[in-house]
Specification:
alpha+beta; nine-stranded mixed β-sheet; 29% helix; globular; binds pyridoxal-5'-phosphate; 8 helices; D-amino Acid Aminotransferase, Chain A, domain 2; 15 strands; D-amino Acid Aminotransferase, Chain A, domain 1; 2 domains
């Protein structure tokens, strides 16, 4: 069965889903995206993703072509049309296609909205049992990483370097501290059982999974500190992990080839993963 995508008001076979070469997403990376997980055919933590979408488009003065209520309806319809049980819905909104290539915002151009789905067994992923290695790379991104922009070249290069090194993710480093993963938030558990993850700000994307995990941990009386940490601190930690919509909570067992603690996923990471999966199942829409 050919997959169905959504393009500007229509559901079309993926192979026929097209936008103009003048689309500003293509020419300038003038667009915003979101990725929400799908578990048992339902959207995980989608209100949080749609709230971040609204914030991101607001920060670049890009009007959404549909309400967030309608966007959720379209996401759900796409899940149904693709009979998607587990995976994700990708959505992207760009400033649309003008008649040429002027940098300044075009007038009277309707934003582009596209969506597609992909399958992934997030809960049963083998990497959840084994953990992943990460490599470190300099964080060469722009200064507004809080905006979920489609300008991802720095992350493409970081994750390619990780793939070439046989690692599952790249941790980006700025001023001696970890900012975040190429497509994930970074956490450590210190020797005195404090969960540490970098504070939100323009240096990182405010991860939806990060936010949920921090809340779930605090509700269980775990100590959470939102501050930057170094690679040295991570290597001296009890555990390390990443969070994102497409991995949930995923153990990090080595950094640049050096083991984190025993080099195996730790009990707190496993527990937080279970807690997150329970939360995801209980609240999915
Ligand atoms: N940080 C970056 C740079 C990301 O690209 C992502 C997800 O793609 C995340 C963090 C995790 O965010 P979320 O948990 O909302 O998926």
């Amino acid at each position: 069965m050919e997959k169905i995508a959504y393009v500007n008001g229509s559901f079309v076979p993926l192979g026929e889903a097209k936008v103009s070469i003048l689309d500003r997403g293509f020419l300038f990376a003038d667009g915003i995206y979101e990725v929400a997980a799908v578990l048992d055919g339902r959207l995980v933590d989608n209100a949080s993703h749609l709230a971040r979408l609204e914030r991101s488009v607001g920060e670049i003065s890009l009007p959404l072509p549909e309400t967030t209520e309608r966007i959720q309806e379209i996401q759900k319809e796409l899940v149904t049309r693709n009979q998607l049980a587990n995976g994700m819905v990708y959505l992207e909104v760009t400033r649309g296609a003008d008649a040429g290539r002027d940098f300044a915002f075009p007038k009277g151009v309707k934003p582009t909205l596209i969506m597609f789905t992909s399958e992934k067994d997030i809960v049963g992923a083998a990497s959840a049992r084994t953990g992943i290695g990460v490599i470190t790379v300099p964080d060469i991104r722009w200064a507004r990483r809080d905006i979920k922009s489609v300008a991802l070249l720095a992350q493409v290069l970081a994750k390619q370097a990780a793939a070439e090194a046989g690692a599952g993710e790249a941790w980006m480093i700025e001023d001696g501290k970890v900012t975040e993963g190429g497509s994930s938030s970074a956490f450590i558990l210190t020797q005195d059982d404090v969960l540490v993850t970098r504070q939100n700000g323009s240096e990182i994307l405010p991860g939806c999974t990060r936010k949920a995990v921090v809340k779930l941990a605090e509700e269980r009386q775990l100590r959470v500190e939102e501050r930057a940490f170094s690679v040295e601190e991570a290597l001296a930690a009890k555990e390390a992990f990443i969070t994102s919509a497409t991995v949930f909570v995923q153990a990090v067992v080595s950094i640049d080839g050096k083991p984190v603690a025993s080099g195996k996923p730790g009990p707190m990471t496993r527990r937080l993963r279970e807690i997150y999966v329970d939360f995801a199942r209980a609240t999915a829409v």
